[in-house]
Amino acid sequence: MPHALIEELKGKLIVSVQAYPGEPLRTPEIMAAMSRACELGGAAAIRCQGLADIAAIKGRVEVPVIGLWKDGHEGVYITPTRRHALACVHAGADIVAVDATGRPRPDGRPLCETLDAIKEAGAFAMADCMTFEDIEAAVDLGFDLVSTTLSHGVAATDCTMADGPDLELLRRATSVFPDVPVICEGRVHTAEDARQAHAAGAWAVVVGTAITHPTSITSWFAEAMQ
């Protein structure tokens, strides 16, 4: 049975609060304020990136913080090593999200070492997956949550509205692993997308761009009017 902290996320919304390099909102103070606003709006947890942001947000909200550290832009770059994961825990993350694909990790160490380090440090571990096989492997390893974050081949950095969440992968994962917290993340751009993901069995649904990335949201409206 999932821990009480993870049980509290069932049926709820998680908001990803991130800004990318060079963007005007990229300061820990702004990310913390935005996280608090999302909490007031009903977010059950905040997903965030970078040690400074994790620490600032943890000090501003009362809901759990899912922390990660993006290092690089290709291959495994979401909390890619044991060192990155432990740094996220020390910054205040309640849950640490890591790339759980089968791709080679930068330090050459197996994923299980990162998972063990997170748990030994007293935090929970979230597996960001690309395929059903990734999810299956993450469940076997003992991750506390698994997510469809990478199922589009990119880590929520492709903010186009080309398609919606990967409901097919979500339905397969929730049917095979009915007792595992399977999180839907990636291209959830509308309330209807979130509703469909919930109906497909998602333990919780992560929304990022459509709530916390005004540059992309503005571009959607501007492009629609051309």
Automatic annotation (TrEMBL):
Keywords, comma-separated and alphabetical: Carbohydrate metabolism, Isomerase
Enzyme class (EC, first level): isomerase
Reaction catalyzed: an N-acyl-D-glucosamine 6-phosphate = an N-acyl-D-mannosamine 6-phosphate
Recorded metabolic or biological pathway in which this protein acts: Amino-sugar metabolism; N-acetylneuraminate degradation; D-fructose 6-phosphate from N-acetylneuraminate: step 3/5
The enzyme's E.C. designation: 5.1.3.9
Pfam families referenced in this protein's UniProt entry, alphabetically: NanE (PF04131)
Its biological purpose: Converts N-acetylmannosamine-6-phosphate (ManNAc-6-P) to N-acetylglucosamine-6-phosphate (GlcNAc-6-P).
Family: Belongs to the NanE family.
Name of the protein: N-acylglucosamine-6-phosphate 2-epimerase
